[in-house]
Amino acid sequence: MSFIGNKKIVSLLEQSRAQKRLAQAYLFAGPERVGKRTLAERFALELITGKDFAALSENEITQARFDLLSLSPEEVEKRGVTKEKAISVEQVREAIGALATYPYAGLRKVLVVDGADKLRREAQNALLKTLEEPNSTSTIILVANDRQSLLPTIRSRCRHINFSLVSTKELQLLGTEFSEAIPLSLGRPGLAISLAQNKKALTETREWSEQMKQLEGQSVTERMRLSERLSKNVPKAIEQLKFLLWQVHERSTDVTSLALAGKIAATIQTLETTNANARLAIDALLLDL
Fold first, then answer.
1. pLDDT tens, residue by residue, 179-191
2. Are residues 159 and 22 in contact, defined by beta-carbon separation less than 8 angstroms?
3. Is the pTM of the predicted complex or chain greater than 0.85?
C-alpha cells in the first residue's frame, strides 16, 4: 500500500535524500493518525539502506532493522486500570548509547522516537546533548502531535516536517473496502485503516459517535455510567475523547465549540500527564458537556 496523503512531504524527503541534503535530526509533527510514524520508519529504512522504500526486499528490510532504534510509550495495567507509561530517561539514555555505536550493516543508525512530545523534561534533556553533538553516522527522528510540548532547544535543532489532515478524495485511494471507515476517520488515514481492519472497533467508534450526539439529552445517571465504563481503560478513554475532540473541531469553530474543545483537551491532558483520578476527571467533563 502506498503512502496516503501529505504527498508534498513524501516528495520533500525523497528530494533531500537524492540531493544528500540530510539533517541530523527531524521533527515530524501534526495531527494524530495521519501517518507520521509510518513515514518516519520508511524514511529511516531509506537512510539506512540508501534505497527507495518501494525497492527494498523483505530481507533488506529485516537487515536494516538492526540499525533502526525505536522508542514509544507503553501501556501498563495497575489495579484493573490501563494507562500509558511515558518513555523514561533510562530508555532514552540506553537508545542514545546504541545510537552512538557504528552501524551494524547499513549506512547509518536511525532512532525514531514516537510520542516525543510526551517525553518528560529529564528525558528531553538527555536527548538534547546528542542533538547538540551529533555524529556523522546517526539520525534522530522525533514524532510528535504537539511540538510545543518539546523544549525550544530541541525544536531549534530539528528540521521540521509539518503534516496535515488528509482529504476525503485522497482517503478514497485506500480502496472501496475502506468506505465505511473513511467517514469516521476525520481525515486520518491511520484511523481509517485500523477501523477497516477491526470491525469491532469500527462498530464501537460509530456507536461512540452516535452516543456523543445524544449526550445532551442524557440524565446524570446515564452520564455517570458512561464515565465508569470509560475510566476502567484510560488509554481507550483518551482515544474516544480525542475522537470527540476531532469531531468538535471539524463540526464548527464558533465560540461555544471552541470552549467545548478546550474542556475536552484539558481532560485529555489530565489523563495523559498526571496521576489524577480518571473517574473524577471524566465525571467532571461529562457533567459539563
1. 999 999 999 999 9
2. no
3. no
